[in-house]
Amino acid sequence: MYYRDCQTEKFYYESIQVKVIKSGYYTFRGSGSIDPYGSIYKNKFNPLDPWENLLNQEYAHGSDIRFKLDIHLDVDMIYVLVMTTFGSKETGDFWINVLGENEVVLDRLSTPVNIQLKYSSNLTEGSPIYYRDCQVPQCHYETLQIHVNTTGLYVLWSENNINAYGYIYQNDFNPLKPSENLLLSHDGECNDEQFKLIIDLEINTRYILVVTTHDPKIIGNFSVFISGPNNVSLSPFSKYLYDFIDNKYIML
Length: 252
Known about the structure:
The protein is mainly β. It has no helices and 21 strands.
């Protein structure tokens, strides 16, 4: 599910990779037992930023064919068709017909959510603090090493009421240089203030998840869920201790 307009309503969706073998104009027609809403993206679709790479979108408008997307597509370019619904949380069957210059190849990208891990913890007064993004002081945080035994696409997301931020680093995390080794971050935008990280992870590589907060000195509980192709685990990670007396970090 995703927040189609970055608002409060959730929508089920399916993403489909589109490739053409000849450049030209193509027409996508969608119908089904649901009221389908179709969008075309160039290169990739990011459910946390549904306007990024968006080329066109369309829905029924009361038409018998439900929706109709007319668009020029280029050969050797990847496109993504996203099928969702006009109304929130609708489910049902749908069909896509494509008309155009030549054959079109459609490959499903969406995969079912396969939760491999749920991790629950809390930020406390005793949790280490740092300047988040070198801008926000005294943000408590927790660092966790991610262990995967299968290379593939993983999704990490949170459930919390502390407005948590999530960051993923490769090899190392240095609280004094929070932009160093950073791969991906999310602040909960377009996801009801719950961070969500969609990332390819490789075996035999160290990844560190950092959970912190939007505002300084916030403490409270949080849970992290991880979905992916195989088992995954988390373990505490720390190379630094914070000396509250001298107000400085000490490397272990």
